[in-house]
Write a structure and sequence with these properties.
With 179 residues, this protein is of the alpha/beta class. The protein is built from 6 helices and 7 strands, in the order βαβαβαβααβαββ. It has helices spanning 13-25, 45-57, 70-75, 86-96, 104-124, 145-164; strands spanning 2-7, 30-34, 62-66, 81-84, 129-134, 167-172, 175-178.
Length: 179
């Protein structure tokens, strides 16, 4: 089963995704993919607290992989895989490529190419895969270009990966709606 879990910040989407993977793993191994930017936990106590909270909820049998190569992470290994989250992945990809100032067309091409690889990996694997993402299309229009670029690109990523998944789950206030 391939599932895209979306919702707002602090909506409960990560907890829901972890439960889906826990059920799929049935007490066995799973892979947690952290695709975001590398942040120094020693100098960012808020980030360190988030990482610690996520780690404390995961069973010890789960492997953690930090990578932006989502396609390889989805294809590799056995057991279910959880990617948390596509918003941090997108930020890391744009940072890695130093792409924030590129034209809209260049950005769309870059992100579509990286997302196409993930779609192909989803289609090629028999693993259960749960992807977590932020729902960014319900708010106001960001005042700055970088905010608009991020919102538009993540919306496109969400649509493309949502179409490649068997189900999309919307989480609001800890409640899950299967779309």
């Amino acid at each position: 089963m391939k599932v895209l879990v979306t919702g707002g910040v602090r909506s409960g989407k990560s907890r829901h995704a972890e439960e889906l993977v826990r059920e799929a793993a049935d007490g066995g191994a799973a892979t947690y993919v952290a695709p975001g930017p590398t942040t120094d936990e020693d100098t960012d106590p808020d980030w360190a607290a988030r990482v610690a909270a996520h780690r404390s909820r995961r069973p010890g049998s789960w492997a953690t992989v930090q990578t932006r190569d989502l396609a390889s992470a989805v294809r590799g290994g056995g057991g279910p895989v959880l990617v948390d989250c596509l918003g941090t992945w997108l930020t890391a990809v744009l940072d890695e490529e130093r792409a924030w100032d590129r034209t809209s067309e260049q950005l769309e091409e870059l992100v579509a190419r990286r997302t196409d690889d993930v779609v192909a990996a989803l289609a090629a694997t028999d693993r259960d895969v749960v992807l977590v993402t932020n729902e960014v299309g319900l708010g106001v229009v960001p005042a700055h270009r970088s905010g608009r670029v991020f919102r538009d690109l993540l919306g496109a990523v969400n649509q493309q990966l949502g179409a490649a998944c068997d189900e999309v789950h919307l989480v609001i206030a800890g409640r899950v709606l299967v779309l």
